[in-house]
Amino acid sequence: MPVPAYRPLDRSLTRPIAEPPVPPQRCSLKGKPAWCAMDGLIWIEQWRGKVREANADRATAAKVSAGTDP
Amino acid sequence: MKWSEGFALLLCCAALLVLGFGLGSQHQAGKDSARIVQAESKVASAAEDTRAARATVADVQARLDQQKRDLQTARFIANAALDARDALQKHLDDMTAQRTAEAEKAARESPDCADLRRLPICPAVAEQLFGAAPAAAASAASGH
After folding, report:
1. For each successive 10 residues of chain B (144 residues), what is the average pLDDT?
2. How many CB atoms lie within 10 A of CB B70?
């Protein structure tokens, strides 16, 4: 029988997660600076990291609030 | 009346009196016995109630103790999870940095990816993804 141990969530679990920064413009298009496709793909990898951090915090929040498996 | 008749009458009265007493006390004894049986039954019933109540209290106490232990375990798990949180986030951050570095390295080292490193993202899509270009935003802010 799960026993709830409710208490306020730690601030570290509720703070907004910062978005990954926009990459620098390292390519050029028609003489103007532009973003490279590769940097756009790297940006996806950074977003994936943010999702993993968010999921880790969700799992921690589940443990902190109910003491059960997330 | 002769003295013998009087004596017989007296005997009869005495006998009736004794009989009356006897019957009366027998009746009283029957009532007392019923009361005793009733009281004993009540005592037994009360004892049974007491036993049941004690069992219930013990059961509730055992459940409360179990809940207390579960609560302590839950708190222990929660505190451990919070203590591990910062290290976990740092680890995930490092993993992300490692994956992006590896992807960039692979793109640099593979000739097949050279085009990808040079290919610019068209402005329409880039604006959707990243917002206005820093140069464009700067010139818009300065009014040019």
Report:
1. 75 73 74 91 95 96 93 87 93 97 94 92 93 58 45
2. 16
